[in-house]
Each structure stands twice: as structure tokens, then as C-alpha cells.
């Protein structure tokens, strides 16, 4: 058998990929016909493909590579841990130093009394943990019927049975029997698309109050928890109006509903603080983390749990766990990532340099004829594409057609910028420099210009 390496021709790698590799969230046949772009290397904020082309990664992989690609210290941390203790579990009365150290570090960094960590291998797994944990919490307190979890339409919490059910995405729910029972979805705080004539503040309040209406409809004695992303990511980087989270917090407190904030994207500096709960003033009972916890160098996630919930869960045997919960190599790599974030003052860089610089340039994209709004929170931003700014109109084409054209233009111009429907989104590595932000904006503008030309040609503008 031929050894498959970077040295094979691109066409051969694509042929093998098409023959054997099933891609997530992809129509395999269509991709296999054209061939996937083969990414072979990455350093800092740049990817390199098998043709030697350098691409600026405006998405930090999948919102995860916060410290940038290719850090030698991270490779060393993994190698050291593999030599010391490759693997051990924490199921049967044992523990190990990387899991202890990472849990203690997360307790130190997380706000409030979020002092306890249940590890998982990913964000989806961590949200599955959360779902079982909040239901178990109420069952232990003698209220097993309190098992409904309220989430949002167009939220994203992963693609396992639990995570996909908590998420509110129709294409996910349409396959495989989701959502599972006793999960209810309320409206999202997406003012641009759904706010009509209301002010963003009025709309934010109204959407938060849908939570209260749902609680009263089911009866508070049936509702276990509410879950939401601090800022919706995969839904299109939807930054909630300022009125939204305080109202959600008030309602959860009033009815004693547990509050889970999914910080899989927003955790570890993306909004300028360690956690977006600090940015938005939220006091959750549990937060979900993954992605930036290890900057994507190893698969690891977890639930950071407050004292109240942990006290109840610790009093029973919680029949839940993953072979790789707290994997020593993943934990050691995550610890090294946190050391880099702290010692290199990456959050200061975000707050003082990268985020303000990016914000000014990003918001200026709202002047482009194709852009209806340009929003950004820390280092995650979105722009809405529209044929008519004033009315925030949609294109006559199927939703996502123009977004896809724009994304393809970006890719051709060596920029990774993702589309969600007809919204374009970015979430670059936090270590991106002003000079690299200039490149990002220059390529984004060129791609928008080309997209506008293509849209005009198709009579959509
Ligand atoms: N929650 C949020 C907010 C996410 O953005 C994601 C992944 N995009 C997940 C959960 C799921 O994480 P994973 O893909 O690691 O399972």
C-alpha cells in the first residue's frame, strides 16, 4: 500500500478522500466531484494548502485556535505528557495530575462559584453532560418531573443526540429523530432578521420574556434549566441586544431555573474576557467549554459547575462519563494553552489592540453596498448581506445562495470567512496582529466586491 503523505499529488489525495472519508455537515457526492481543498500546514494565522497557497484563517479553524497554529510549546507539552502518563481514567477512585491541575485552574479562572469541572471530549459531549446533570439535580432534589430544558431556535449546542436536540436548528432536527423529548425552543434574540420595527432593546426584552411565557405554560415545577450561547456562533454571530441577558437572568432567578451558558466559542478570551458571562454580566449555574480551552490542539471540553449544583450531584453516583473525560494529554495541552494565554497577556492584546482595531475596520464594512449590518463582539463578527440596506431585505434567491457565493470568493482570495445563510462570519485567532487584520479586511472587501458583481449578474441585486 502507498504511504499517504503530503507529498502525494493533490488530485490523488482528493481521490482517496472522496473514496474513504465522510465529511461532517457536507453533501459528500457534491464535494467528492469537485474535490476537497487539502490543508497541509499552518503557522500563526495562516493555513497552507497542498498547492502551496497561503490562506488567512479568519475562523481560527472552527472558532478554536485562539493562540494561533503551530506553537512548539504545545507540541512539547503533549510529548512530555505522553511520556509521563499517556492515559488513565478517572472513573474508579483514581485521578491524575493533569486533570487535577486543569480543574483547579478552571475554577480559578471561571467567575463566581463555578468551582467544579466535569470533563468531556468535546462541546457536544459537555452539553450532553449538562442535560443529564440538570435533570439528575432535580431528580435528586425529589422533583424528577422537573425535566424540561428550554433552549433557543437557531441555537447551536453540538450534534450528538443531546447537543443536537438542545440546539434549535431545523436541518439538524430533520435527521435522526431529534429533538429528544422535553426540550423546548423559544425565539432567538436576532434583531436584524426578526426584530421588525422594534428597537433592538425592546426586541431583546421581548425575546427574553418568551422564556417566562414558556415557564408559565409548562409550570415552573416542570422546568429544569435554560441553555443559551452567550453570543450565538454557528447561528450567524448574533450578538444579543443589551436587554436580553439581564432579563433571562431575572427570570431564571425568579422561578429557580438553572442557567446554563454555552461558552464553547466565547470562552477563553473571544469576547475580551476569560468568559462572556463577565462581558454580559451573567451569573450561570453551569458553563460549557471546549474549543479555546486547548486552542484546538487537543479535543477536550467540559462543564464548569457551580457550588449549588455540584453539591447535589456529588451526593449521588452520577452514572455518566467518557473514556476520555480529563484525558491527561488533552488536559496537559489545555494547561499549556492557558499558560500561554496568561503569560503572553493574550487577553490584554485582544482588549487593547486586536479587538478595537478589528472593530473599527469591520464596522466600516457596513458602508459596502452589499452589507446591511456589520456587528462585532470582541473577536467574533458578522455581516448581513442584503439587496436593500434600508429594509434589511432578503435576496430573492434561496437563503444562503449569496452567502455561499461570497464564501467561495473569499476562499479564492485566500481568506477563510464562513457563511451562515446570507451572513458572513469571522472569528480569527486572538493573536492576530493589526497588519494581519489589514490583510483580512482587504481580502474580505475584495470578495464582497466580487460577490456584488456576481449577484448583479444573476439579477439578484
Ligand atoms: N456549543 C457551541 C456554542 C458550539 O459552537 C459548538 C461547536 N461549534 C458546540 C457546542 C459543539 O462542540 P463540538 O463540536 O466540540 O462537539
CATH topology annotation of the largest domain? Aspartate Aminotransferase, domain 2
| Rg from Cα | 22 Å
**Count of discrete structural domains:** 2
Alpha carbon gap, first and last residue: 53 Å
CATH C-level name of the largest domain: Alpha Beta
Give me the side-by-side strand order of the main sheet. Answer: 4-10-9-8-7-5-6
Q: Estimate what percentage of residues fall within beta strands.
A: 15-25%
CATH homologous group name of the largest domain: Type I PLP-dependent aspartate aminotransferase-like (Major domain)
Low-pLDDT segments: none
Give the rounded overall mean pLDDT: 97
Query: Helicity, in percent?
Result: 40-55%
Associated small molecules = 4'-deoxy-4'-aminopyridoxal-5'-phosphate
Protein described:
InterPro entries: Aminotrans_3, Aminotrans_3_PPA_site, PyrdxlP-dep_Trfase, PyrdxlP-dep_Trfase_major, PyrdxlP-dep_Trfase_small. By secondary structure, the protein is α/β, with parallel strands linked by helices. It folds into two domains: 37-67 and 345-457, Aspartate Aminotransferase, domain 1 (Alpha-Beta Complex), CATH 3.90.1150.10; 73-343, Type I PLP-dependent aspartate aminotransferase-like (Major domain) (Aspartate Aminotransferase, domain 2). 42% of the residues lie in helices and 16% in strands. Helix 1 packs antiparallel against helix 2. It starts with 9 loop residues before the first helix and ends with a helix. Bound molecules: 4'-deoxy-4'-aminopyridoxal-5'-phosphate.
